[in-house]
Amino acid sequence: MEVEEGGVQFEDYFPSMMEGSGAEGFIIELCNGFHLLMDVEKGLITFESLKRSALLLGLQDMGDDEIVSMLSEGDLDGDGALNQMEFCILMLRLSPGLLDGPKQWVEEMYIHEPDEEALWF
């Protein structure tokens, strides 16, 4: 992830992650990413938790408007924050490489029912 003029640019590593770990491993990694970014007390990715994470990731140049925009992009229920499902949906939507990859990846992700414990720890 890089902050450039005109917004944040992401490099799409998801196809290689999917290829290396399969659908279940990829979903677990997405969940791990959510947990790294979330506000522990709220169990959500909030403006504050995302801003704090941006600083830790070296993205201190990321403006408040860009953080709000990222949250808005994935906020399906309108609460101003991202729950785990909204985060995973957003990450998948932002990865054109996953949908361009082998059809098997997409099928595995949609038919796979990961272990409940893996998603909610």
Task: Tell me what the structure shows.
The chain has 121 residues and is mostly helical. Helices cover 60% and strands 5% of the residues. It is built from seven helices and two strands. A two-stranded antiparallel sheet has the order 1-2. Strand 1 and strand 2 form a beta hairpin. The relative contact order is 0.19. The C terminus is likely disordered.
Low-confidence stretches: 116-121
The number of strands is 2
Q: Number of DSSP helices?
A: 7
Helix content: 55-70%
Strand content: under 5%
The main pleated sheet reads as: 2 strands, antiparallel
Q: What separation lies between the terminal Cα atoms? A: 26 Å
Over the alpha carbons, how many angstroms does the gyration radius reach? 15 Å
Topology as a string of helices (H) and strands (E): EEHHHHHHH
Backbone structural class = mainly alpha
Brief summary of the model shown:
This protein is mainly alpha-helical and 121 residues long. It is 60% helix and 5% strand. The radius of gyration is 15 Å and the shape is globular.
Topology:
Blueprint: E1 2-4, E2 7-9, H1 14-37, H2 47-56, H3 64-74, H4 84-93, H5 96-100, H6 103-111, H7 116-119
Antiparallel strand pairs: 1-2
Helix pairs in contact: 1-4, 1-6
Which structural traits does this protein have?
121 residues, mainly alpha, two-stranded antiparallel sheet, 2 strands, 5% strand, disordered C terminus, calcium ion binding
